[in-house]
Batch of 2 targets.
Target 1
Amino acid sequence: MGIVVCICGNVFGGEKIFSAEELYTKDLHQNLNTNLEMIHNEYPDFTELKSIGASIKGKDIKALKIGTGEKSILINGAHHGREMMTAVLCTQQAKELADKYAEDEVIRRKLDTVSVWFVPLTNPDGVLKALTTYPSWKANAGGVDLNRNYPTKGAKRTVFRPSSKEYHGPQPFSEPETIAIRDFCYEQNFETAIAYHSAGEMVYWWFYQQGECLDKSRSIAKKISSATGYRLVPIAESKGGYGFTDWFIAEFNKPAFTLEIGKTCNGLPLGFWEYKNIWKKNRNIPMLIVEEMIKVNQIQLIEPVIDTNILLPEMTTSSSIEAEVLD
Ligand SMILES: [Zn+2]
């Protein structure tokens, strides 16, 4: 039960999940996974929990789905070791979304149309290294920067051997963590994807998409920017060709976004003091993205589920009458 704690006071309402004290400890991976299991155990009817792969050192990479919608979006955190706060954010978003699903019929209908898959912790080994011995570490356990390990055009290569950051690896998708994300994207055919990073309070949203995809991307990016207050990175500054988001846009010709949380840019994990503000700015992002995808892709909402409790007594009566007739 040691894992059941809370962030910044009682931000989860009745349920407590993380604690400031426990956030930046070597147990973060285990704590997050336990919390994902708790959410799934609390709401088994409309959540799904699965492992999508494992890190170099064999740590499980978990994905949690909220809602039953066949269409879905991906929200992903912690490609980079020192950016572990993004993993906490995604896990708390998952918990809040599950609570809302349970309470609110309108939200339930939307999430049963477009569900949300969370992969809070993509790089468990890198996060552990940053938490224990090397605070500025971004790469995975093999010294490959996972967000340089996707095939993206125009990416400048600056580091040519394993390093704490920016080494792209021997070839694209050479790492088990990026393979897990890639295969999960192919399997689920997401409508869009969010990748959380830190820091700088920015939204990256463009990577050479044109036409309809460009229009959708711009419109959603503006909504994200006004919800969070994060600056939209202009097209002229978006030609770097780095990472998951650029790969997703190019590979699927669909919108995808990198959200950089946090103000402090000192090459170290964000101080916990920033979390309260980050949570406030990002807590509604999952629902905002679901609603925007429903809108821009003109997705028909599923019909509301009929309450079977109302029908059951009649059905019981008629079948018992039949039984009497048959006798
Ligand atoms: Zn990053």
Target 2
Amino acid sequence: MNTSQEKCRDAPLIEIRHLSVSVEGKRVLNDLDLYVMQGETIVLFGPNGSGKTSLLKTIMGIPQYRVESGNIIYRGEDIAERSIDERARLGLGLVFQNPPAVRGVRLKDILRICMVKSGDFREERIIESAGKLNFVDFMDRDINLGFSGGEIKRSELLQLLAQNPAFVMFDEPDSGVDLVNINLVGKVINELLEKGIREDRRTKAGLIITHAGHILDYVNADRAYVMLNGSVSCSGNPGDILDDIRTKGYEECVRCRR
Ligand SMILES: Nc1ncnc2c1ncn2[C@@H]1O[C@H](COP(=O)(O)OP(=O)(O)O)[C@@H](O)[C@H]1O
Ligand SMILES: [Mg+2]
């Protein structure tokens, strides 16, 4: 590794500083701070309505989420003013919690486009990737149209495999996925985050939202944050925090913050 790459590793891949965001006139994020180092996997816990999805959509650049103040620093550059497609080209990717269906566009068409854009298009790669998620039979279906909750997650993950982003965000990848498929989902997340190689050699990083924590049985996370009312209320070891949430509930997090 050369010196500039080493220097790069000392700085976070992405850093959120004092971020406040509104949507439809409502404040959803308040002075939020977090960072993710290259090679790291971060998990984000929080009760319903605490702003987890809003955070990921803001990082991705969904236009309705208005940055009132603060910075989104990615590879040293503030990207808060950049458009969603520019952010995708810079290497940001998101598995949506509730993505729209796209009538008239087949899943294999969008996979082909993503692969061409990522510079690695091979027709056989489409079937190879779909096989990893037990999803080959869905290639001629319209994107997400009539898909069940678990099928939507696999469809979204497959699109990310094709896109191959460097900073990968997963919004509740475990919700609605049955036991057989959650194993496949976990494997693909591990592949996207290069879990098979040493942390200091990885070029990717991930941020995973989980409500119940099931995905942590399949994917190792390095650190966890808890979000409450649009801010980070604490951070620490994912297993310890999950145990506390399971035994004491989020109310204890509120007390712990006081
Ligand atoms: N597009 C939107 N329009 C209006 N309110 C929204 C929108 N997106 C999020 N919110 C509100 O922001 C709050 C946080 O929502 P969300 O980020 O989805 O929370 P979480 O993912 O933690 O459950 C909720 O009160 C939600 O109703
Ligand atoms: Mg959500």
